[in-house]
Structure formats: structure tokens, C-alpha cells
Amino acid sequence: MGMVSQTNGKYLDIMIENKFKDTDDCALKDISYREMKNGEYILYADRAELLVVNREVALTVIEKDKINITKNKKLFEILKNNGFLIDEHNEINGLPKEPKNNIFRMLQIFLMVVFGLSVLLLLLYGSQKLIWNSLYIVPFDRRIFGLILIGISFSVGTTILHEFMHLIFSNNIKNIKRMLSISLKKSTAYVSLTHVWTWSVFSRLMAVSAGIMIDIVVLSILLVIGKVLNNEIETILMSIMFLRIIWQFGFHRKTDGKYFLMMLLDNPLIDIDYKTNRNVLTKKEVLAWRIACVIGKIIDLYLLFFWIMPIVYKTILWIGGRI
Ligand SMILES: [Zn+2]
């Protein structure tokens, strides 16, 4: 999953009473918003950046109080720079709302159940070899090119599935065309989930974790297949899936795990504040983020020593004709 950068999120504490000339210029997009645990508000609009503001400012913006917005030059500038004003050049789309119907709720519960069963299956029957030993898996002989090709196809297919799950659980299927065009331009899988910040806690956590949940389901399916026909292709596909799941727990990178944690702690600015302005965070937030960063670094070391280095070493031996 990708998210629109939140680096432009700004706190607005002071209302500056500045007369602003351009009152006609102030047409706001539809604002999506939510009050956070700490009493501040999250504001969002189509193709905008997420803003975190205090209650007073939030109400001014939500009520589209033109007079006060144009009076406050700083606020006006921030809304303008972060994409909250209607721009003639861009068509405006409504933001996907949080579905409140039973079908959506049943889908969420269904995914939770299938995910829970998959985790159980992996815990009961998963092999520790997958975690501790990557070397035995890859046969370095003529078959390797075929296996690489299968691995790449599998990666592409499961990435599409992963992103598709984000689309469904963020109620964003309608925008699939736009998403695809952005994805092609950036040549990377990209589903924006920023709009779910204004949803209820369960729905936003489901939207951000739907991808990794389906990855874990796929991994458990591979495990079952492996019990029937134990061959190296299935083992390699399991390793690919396993590594992609582990990768998501790199909380210090832009991963689903990081956004999950931000949404759980209900603070979209926690990462930026942790790096630049730590004293605005609560002790709990600082501790939680510190632990998350340590876990992320441990995962980097694990990937380096248990996967990257052994594979590089084996490749060098292979090139040297020693295998
Ligand atoms: Zn994702």
C-alpha cells in the first residue's frame, strides 16, 4: 500500500486576523473529517494532504466559514497549499465514504475469520525451516532461470491481489481507473488509503491490513498445497510470500505495518513528530514508536543475515563454478 505523504500536515494554533483580498477565490472541496482521541481534528479532501488542526480551526473549515477563512491568511494559505481549494484544472471526485451496510461488515468479518484460520494453520503446521534457513531452498543449477520466472510471476500476481484487497476494504473500487493510471506512471503498486483516516477505528485498521491479511491467507494455502505435493517450487513461493509479509513489519519504512500502527495510535503525524518534534508526543507514543523502530531495524538485520547474505554468497559460489 502507498499513502499520500503526510509531511505537509501542519498544526494550526494561532488564528491571525489578517484581511485577505481574494475572497472570491475561496471555494473549498468537500471536507472529510474526524475528531481524534486527543481532541484535535483530521481534515481531508479529494487529492489533498491530510491536515491535523485544533477544534476551532476545524470547525471553521468544516462549516466552510468563508469569511473567517479568508480573514485568516495563514489558514487560507495552508488550505490552498495542501489541496483543499477547488482548482479549475482538476475535476473533483467525492471521497469514498465508510460503508455502513451489512454486506461490507460481513466482508470484513469474513476476512477476519479466514485470516484467523490461516494464522492458526501456519502456527500449527508451519515449518521453522522457512524462518531460519533460506539456503537449502534455491537449487542453483539450470532450473534456476525457470524458477526465477515463476517467482516473478507469482510476485506480480500476489501484489495485484494485495492491492485489490486494499481497494475493496477502503471502498475505492470506483476509483480503480485513476489508481491504475497513477500506478503505471509511478511504476509501482499504489493504492491511496489516506481517506480512511476519517473512518472508524475498526474499518480503517481493516482497510490498511487487508493486504497483509490476504498475503497470510495465500501463505497458508501454499502450506496446505505443500503437504500434498512437496516440491521446491512451492517452497520458493512460500519463501517469497513469507519475506513479503516480514517486510511489512519494517515500521521505520513506508510499510503497511507502519500505517497500521499510526492508525492504531490515532496519530498521523507520529513519525514526523518523533523525528523532529518529539516533545509534542505523549510518553506512551514515544515509547511505542521507539519499540516499533527497534523492531524494524531487527527485521532489517534478519533479512540481511538470513536471506540476502546467504543468497549472495551462494550466487558467488555458483558463478565461480563451485556448486
Ligand atoms: Zn499494502
Describe the largest sheet.
Answer: 3 strands, antiparallel
Element-level helix/strand string = EEEHHHHHHHHHHHH
Gap from first CA to last CA: 39 Å
**Helix fraction bin:** 55-70%
Beta-strand portion reads under 5%
The strands making up the biggest β-sheet line up spatially as: 1-2-3
Number of strands: 3
The hetero molecules present are:
zinc ion
Shape verdict = elongated
**Structural class of the helices, strands and pairings?**
mainly alpha
Task: Describe, in plain words, how this protein is organized in 3D.
By secondary structure, the chain is mainly α. It starts with about 30 loop residues before the first strand and ends with a helix. The protein has helices at about 55-60, 65-70, 75-80, 100-125, 130, 145-170, 175-185, 200-230, 230-245, 255-265, 270-275, 285-320; strands at about 30-35, 40-45, 50-55. It has 3 domains: about 1-95, no CATH class; about 95-115 and about 145-245, no CATH class; about 250-323. A 3-stranded antiparallel beta sheet has the order 1-2-3. Zinc ion binds next to helix 6.
